[in-house]
Amino acid sequence: MSELLVTSIYNQEGTGAPNLPKGAVVTGVITATTLKGDAEITGGTINATSVTAASGTFNGPVTIGGTLTYEDVTNIDSVGVITARSGVKVNAGGVDIAGGGINAVGVVTATSFSGSGANLTGIDAAPSMSGIVNGTIANGAPVILLDDGKLGPVSGSQGLNGSPGEAYYTGGNAYSSMTYDTTNDRVVLIYRDDNAGGIPYCKAGTVSGTTITWGTPVQIVVAGCGPVDCTFDSNAGKVVFCYIDQNDSNKLKSLTGTVNSSNNSISLGTIATIDSNDCDNVSVEFCSTINKLLYAYRDDGDNNRGYCRVAEVSGTDISNIGSRVEFGNGNSITQSYGLVKAIWNPTDQKAIIFYSDYNNSEQGAARSVTISGNTPSIGTRVWFDGSRCDVFVDAAYDPDNNKIVVTWREGSNGTGYYNLVRAMSLSGTDIVLDSTTYNVVENQGGRGCIAYDTNANQFLIGYSNQNNAPPQAMDTVTMTLANNGTMTFGTPYKWDQGGVSGDMPQRMIFDPDSGSMVMLYRSTGTGTTGSQYRIQRIRVSNVTSSNFVGFSNAAYTNGQTAKVSVVGSTSTNQTGLTTARQYYVLGDGSLGTTADSANVEAGKSLSSTSLLVKG
């Protein structure tokens, strides 16, 4: 083996590199200006700008500092994990993952998703909405969209139309009245029992839903009576009864009653004589802002002229009875029962007495009453009906508009027995009539009644309707009064019952504790002839079919973000449902299988706890 020690090696001509056809084996480092293939190979590592090869095999990791570009690659088969730092872009064909799923740390965005979605977690598969709460919403409660765009609870009361219940059974009785004891929260009646010789009785009852639970009737006197009336003195906490004593020359008498709410019993005070003459047709009204009693009545012994007196309650007695003052201009008051009515206006601190003036073709008249001490003074007469005021006048006070509304049946020389209604106000001692008289019903009617619902800010008017079947079966209708006197009437509610006697006036009071109207009338067509009651509540609520959106998924307080199950979803946090029933949202937010007047559909029950919203 020989060694060649030279500084340079050239070709034969001395002009270039030598030709080594057999190759060369170099133990050390080869240093050259140019190495064909432009590659540096050191210790098994190739360092080159580019490598071009038909194929290659790598037994270890391959590190690429720049971009690895695949041209016409059909498949990439990776045994491990493929990590893309700036995303994976697929221009066509999609991504098919046979197993393992996709774990996305960030957001997955797609034009659409395909599949059942049954195993998806952490998302709402059913329709829902979210919003800020105004108020407090209970778990599973119906939710409404408020005018400010927030979500709110349903509040209010549901409408009720109760079935007739027996107030008392006394055969052909024509005399009774009713008031409400706001101290003890009781309905109180006075009535004449014809089956007991016309003796007057009173009793108290508790309103629950559409029924009244009555206490034991209390006999007022042992003799028969004529017309009766009652009112409640909220200052003394006493019911005030009055009646015509037929066993004592038809004197007008009065006494107090104290209700015991524990058993609905009534303790009676001492009987006082209000007028010793031959009286009839009495009305008594408590004048709340001055704590006085106003009695208006007809004196049959004085040519049927109309008089009034003022008294007050002292302990359990009627005391300080003032002198009587005539209110009818010397004319006779029409003799039909119920054609005298006194009503108090607490804002103007004056009363109005309504009556039918017999000497002026029975026109409907009204006069204001100002009370000073225990002396009434009478204002100028106005005619609320220029035709014949036929039977029974009733009136109610609207505190929202400071107006009194009167209802009556007009006679044959007017509309032909239509039930009418008209509003009026007071200006000093003068009565200012609203210009328009409205028909409650445009056909022959009967005796009517009216009361004002301070929750609904509406009147409820009851009347017997000759066009019903049977004739004179009772109807009721709501009426909203605008400050300018315009009246808007609801749809009449026709009661499914027998006829109503024309002999007895209807009575109606508002129970502020239950928010219900209680109506008293005499029935002749349901198998019994006696007085019945019926309870009706005007619907007052903030929910409508337009603003109801669904049911809350949980309980939320004011300012929280609530999630609501909307139409098409299933609310699974209900209670007490009956399966396979259509449910409605009622005015108080409860659910029922019978709709109220708003007809807000809730949905179909799938189980006792699940409801398909508006299904």
Number of strands: 48
**Proportion of beta-strand residues:** 35-45%
Quickly give the structural class: mainly beta
Low-confidence stretches: none
Query: What's the gyration radius in Å?
Result: 46 Å
Average predicted local confidence, pLDDT: 86
- Determine the fraction of residues in helical runs and give it as a percent range: under 10%
How is the quaternary structure best described?
single chain
Number of helices: 0
Largest sheet: 9 strands, antiparallel
Calculate the terminal CA-CA distance, rounded to whole Å.
102 Å
- Morphology call: rod-shaped
Describe this structure in a few short sentences.
This protein has 615 residues and is an all-beta fold. It has no helices and 48 strands.
Keyword list:
nine-stranded antiparallel beta sheet, mainly beta, rod-shaped, 615 residues
List the topology elements.
Blueprint (H helix, E strand, L loop, with lengths): L38 E4 L2 E4 L79 E5 L9 E4 L5 E3 L2 E2 L2 E2 L3 E4 L7 E6 L4 E8 L5 E10 L2 E4 L3 E2 L5 E9 L4 E8 L5 E10 L4 E4 L3 E4 L3 E9 L4 E8 L5 E10 L2 E3 L5 E2 L13 E6 L4 E8 L5 E10 L2 E4 L3 E17 L4 E8 L8 E9 L2 E4 L4 E4 L3 E9 L4 E8 L7 E9 L5 E3 L3 E2 L12 E5 L4 E8 L6 E8 L2 E2 L6 E5 L8 E5 L4 E2 L10 E4 L5 E2 L7 E6 L5 E3 L2
Antiparallel strand pairs: 1-2, 3-43, 4-5, 4-42, 6-41, 7-40, 8-40, 9-10, 10-11, 11-12, 11-13, 14-15, 15-16, 16-17, 16-18, 19-20, 20-21, 21-22, 21-23, 24-25, 25-26, 26-27, 26-28, 28-29, 29-30, 30-31, 30-32, 33-34, 34-35, 35-36, 35-37, 38-39, 39-40, 42-43, 44-48, 45-46, 45-47, 47-48
